[in-house]
Design a protein that fits this description.
110 residues; mainly alpha; two-stranded antiparallel sheet; 3 helices; 2 strands; 5% strand
Length: 110
Amino acid sequence: MRTHLLEGPVLAAGVWQSGLAQVLGGLVVVAVLIGAFVFGTRVNTRELPPPDPESHPHRPESAGLPGETTEYRRPSEVPLTDGEHRLMPYNLRTTGESVPRPPSEEKRTW
């Protein structure tokens, strides 16, 4: 009797085609991720706590920010041009004139 003809071809459904290896690989990846999370949590608990605000140095209350200056400037006049020539940026002055006192409320134009 020829039984191997009746059984049909034997499929080579190895481990990869059955899906078992993918499931095992996924479980390994999940186990590694959980282990990394637990390890990170343990390392985080061993670190020093953040310093409290009282331990930081404080700036004097009368001092401003480093490099900060306070001054009032008189605006520069924009030169008038005729309609033929454009006013280019290099034709303008960079800043206005420094004034020691603030202008009065009537003179402020904004």
